Each structure stands twice: as structure tokens, then as C-alpha cells.
Amino acid sequence: MMREPLHPEEMQTDGTGFLPSLAIDTVIFGFHEGQLKILLLEYTNTNLLALPGGFIQETENLNDAARRVLAERTSLQGIYLEQFYTFGDLDRYDPTPLRAIMSAHGLNYSDHHWLLRRFVSVGYYALVDFTKAIPVPDLLADRCDWYDLANLPPLMQDHQKIVQKALDTLRLELDRKLIGFNLLSETFTMADLQRLYETILDQKLHRSGFQRKMLSLGILERLDKQYSGGAHKAPYLYRFASDKKPV
Amino acid sequence: MMREPLHPEEMQTDGTGFLPSLAIDTVIFGFHEGQLKILLLEYTNTNLLALPGGFIQETENLNDAARRVLAERTSLQGIYLEQFYTFGDLDRYDPTPLRAIMSAHGLNYSDHHWLLRRFVSVGYYALVDFTKAIPVPDLLADRCDWYDLANLPPLMQDHQKIVQKALDTLRLELDRKLIGFNLLSETFTMADLQRLYETILDQKLHRSGFQRKMLSLGILERLDKQYSGGAHKAPYLYRFASDKKPV
DNA sequence: TATTATTGTCACAATTTGTTACAATAATAA
DNA sequence: TTATTATTGTAACAAATTGTGACAATAATA
């Protein structure tokens, strides 16, 4: 399995300084206009879309490597990040797409290039405030953009499977880990929060029960009202009160 | 991070045939006489206890490698096995204990021996029927035995941390994945099952509510009564009805 | 000032969970 | 044979949680 981002310095060395055989893939979730989105890279002169990824430096903790990859891709620090599964099937190993990417950049490589060997990849998912994350393509990629999770294009290798597993994990941990709040901006209305939950779970929730449940968590701080200009009662804004976060 | 089991063929080669930098550790749970137990290896001429582990062959799926390690250690096939976390901290890397093990076997090694490099380890937990698993020490270990989880001796490296994370995962998934049944023998009484749940969760449960909940799952098949010789009503035996298992 | 859409909250029902109670019943003792 | 003992299966009720609908409050607009 080959990996992204393919920094030129990685491609032109023999892999020295990085742990061999091991990579990281990150599924970076955002939420905008009622849609769950993830960050994907598109490589120059190929039609290949891939998850942002990278390698682990020999002097770096695994989780720190994931944090570094995330920061390089979103320009954000201190983001919610969770390891969720490690993918190590043999059928991940298909050097074809990576050869295409390397060729497209006019890079020399032999069939024994370290990037063309089999890789096991540790999957992480991240939750970011869509309005604050600034996607940054790496040097081999044309673009780094948000894509609707509900309407994903074909992805490189087993990345579709990785995304699905990330989403499954997200749903399972939605209540247990207060995931929702990491995908919204600093302040939000109860309706915002409910729309997010409904999108993640892909099911309608009852407004009354949802509000009662969220308030009963005791982690929301009520702020001023939000006068949206609509012909209706103005909703309160809320903020996630980290000091009230349960242990 | 060094790994177990250390098959001689692994120690005397240059690591060819295995994925470098990557290892597997398995936390094998059993339940006997009201105690949760795990399998540990004790190495010859050292006082080191370690989790059963191994490496991934280049031609082998990651999960299959875990399955192979488990089979080699317990002589059991088709065991419940779940990947739960991948451990990649730098402070795992401490070649001292492995040097001791290699020395104890009179093996030659240089400081650049592949086993002395840093390893990232994928953690799996397994649930086995204590009465059927036959622990098998590998060729470098003196013994492979069950130890009470509640009273573990010091373990090699970060294996204590791995065990704790496995137990945390076990508790979280106890209801969701019907874990309990994999730790009991083919048939069991409701009291057996409750004792297991109480041990895993480390808390008392109400007998009546527990029975109602288990029966409501619709996955238990009631068999004959068990005449235990005690001066009291005989309990029914139950069996896990796999055909009734929910999707 | 009436209308409209949405919000915050209450009220009640339905369901689930917590707890107690009690009859049934193996084995043993009287 | 019969009483005693410990444990079991289940019913009964209470408490807590969740599901659902209703309604007054209220910004903006007509």
C-alpha cells in the first residue's frame, strides 16, 4: 500500500528516517450546510482521490505523527483526533496508482522503491470546525478539498472502506465522546446541533427529546439569543462549556 | 519495541519475510472460578512476563497474523478476536529486556539486529473457553500460563498498559458484542453468566434485572436443568443460539 | 395589529430499568 | 415422610428514561 501525502523528500530518499511498512491515513470530518464532508487530495495528472496520509518518523510517537499530518493538511492545531482501526489486508498492496502518481511527476523509481512495498496503515479520524480549517494540498497534489460524504467519488485503493469504518466508529461514539461539538463553530443553536446529529446518524430525531437530552448533559452554556431575521422566535445560542465536561 | 513470541527462526534471520517495525500483541482472556485471566509467557533465565505476540508475514493479512499467533498460543481455531488499538509511543522502544532474552539463549546479536529496533504493535484481544484452551510456550519461553487479571505480576515494557486498554475495550463492548458467551463453556447457568458480567464490570448486578435482560436478547436457548447436588432449586442450563444472533 | 414560523418547555404516554416479593424446587435433616 | 434450607424463575410494582404531542412565547413580516 502506498501512502499520501507523498512529499518529494519522501519519494526521493530510500525511506530513511521513517518507519518502514507503516503509514497513517486520516479521515477529516467537517460539517457545512447540513452535509458531512471529508477532506480528499487529488493528485496531479491522475484522476486519483485519496485520504490525507503520511508516514511515521523514527523519532516520533505514532499519535504525534497523526497530529502532524492533520496539522499539515488543515493548518489547525489541537484538533479532536482518534485512532480507530489499523488496516493491514494484503489486497491493499497495489503499486499501480502510486506508480502513476510518481510518473506524473517525472520521478525516477525502481520496482523496489520503498514506497512501492506493502504498507499497513493506521486509521485516524479528526473532527474540525469547517469554517476554520484551511485545506492545504501537498506538493504532489493538485488540490485538497472538501467532498460530501453522501456523494463521494471513487477513492484510491481501500480508502472507501477506511472512510466507512471511520463513519461507523463516529456513530458508535457519538454520545459517549461528545463528538458533535467538535464539528460545530464556537457557538451554535440547538437546531444546528440537532441537524448535525441527524446527519451523522442518518435519521430524524424528535426535537423535544433531543433538546431535553442535550441540556441534561450539563455541558452546554446558554448565551444570548440569535436574531436571524426570520419571522419566528429567536433561538438561544449555546457554547460547549469545557469546565463542565464530565470525566 | 521487541516482540514475542521470539521464534528462533525469527531471531537468527535478518527479518526477511516479515514486515519490519510492526508487531502484534494479543491479550487472551479466559474466565475460571470467578476470575478473569490472561495468558502470559515467561522467558527462560529472565524474570520477564510478556503478552503473546508475533510478527506479520509479508504474504499474510494483518488479522490473519493475529489469528495465527492466537492459534499457536492456545491450540484453538475459530476464536473470538478483535483488534482494539495500535501502540506506537517512542517510549515502547527499549531493547534491554530483549537483549536479556537473547543472551539467555546464547544467541549472537549486534546492536543493529532487526529485533532491537523500534516496533509499533497492533493490539488484539481474544476470548477463549478456559477449559478448552491449552497454553503452549514458544521455544524461547519457559512457560505459558494463565494469570489472574486482578493480581498481575509486573509485565515487560508497556504490556500493562496494553492489558488495561484491552480491558477497557472489553467493558465498553460487553453488551454490544455479546462478549460474555465467548468466555463460557458451551452450556452455562444464568448465575454463571451473571458472575462473569460482574467480574468484567467489577460491580454487582441485580439478579432479577440481569436475567430479564439476558432473556430479552432472544439469543439464549434453554436446555435441561442442571442438578448440582445443592440443597436448592436446580437452575436451567442455557446455550448461545447462534442462529438467533442479531445482525 | 394579525400572521407566520420557530422555539422553549411542559404534560402525558410508553418503555425500560431498579427493586422487592414470592412461589417453586432440589437436596438434606428431622 | 415431612420440614428446612438455599437458590431459582418470574411476577409485581416503583422509579427513571424516552417518545410524542401540545401550547404559549416571540421575532419578523404583512
Walk me through what this model shows.
The structure is a homodimer of 247-residue chains. Chain A has helices at 8-12, 62-74, 96-104, 159-172, 190-201, 207-216; strands spanning 18-32, 35-43, 49-50, 53-57, 80-87, 120-127, 141-148, 187-189, 220-225, 236-240. The first copy, chain A, has 247 residues and is α+β, with helices and mostly antiparallel strands. Chain A has two domains: 8-172, Nucleoside Triphosphate Pyrophosphohydrolase; 184-244, Arc Repressor Mutant, subunit A (Orthogonal Bundle), CATH 1.10.10.10. Chain A is elongated, with a radius of gyration of 20 Å. Residues 1-5 of chain A have low confidence and may be disordered. The A-B interface holds A 19-22, 56, 58-63, 65, 83, 85-90, 118, 120, 122, 172, 176 and B 19-22, 56, 58-63, 65, 83, 85-90, 118, 120, 122, 172, 176. The first copy, chain A, binds a DNA duplex (30 and 30 nucleotides) through residues 189-191, 206-209, 211-213, 225, 227-236.
The N- to C-terminal Cα distance of chain A equals: 39 Å
Derived structural class of chain A: alpha+beta
pLDDT < 50 stretches of chain A? 1-5
- Shape summary of chain A: elongated
Give me the Rg of chain A, rounded.
20 Å
Largest interface between protein chains, with number of residues from each side:
A-B, 24 and 24 residues
- The helix content of chain A, as a percent range, equals 25-40%
Largest sheet of chain A: 7 strands, mixed
- Any idea what the CATH architecture of the largest domain in chain A is? Alpha-Beta Complex
The level-1 CATH class of the largest domain in chain A = Alpha Beta
Estimated share of beta-strand residues of chain A = 25-35%
Number of helices of chain A: 6
Q: How many domains make up the coordinates of chain A?
A: 2
Mean pLDDT of chain A: 88
Q: Which H/E pattern describes the elements of chain A?
A: HEEEEHEHEEHEHHEE
What is the CATH topology descriptor of the largest domain in chain A? Nucleoside Triphosphate Pyrophosphohydrolase
What is the quaternary state of this protein? homodimer
By DSSP, the count of extended strands of chain A is 10
- What is the CATH homology-level superfamily of the largest domain in chain A? Nucleoside Triphosphate Pyrophosphohydrolase
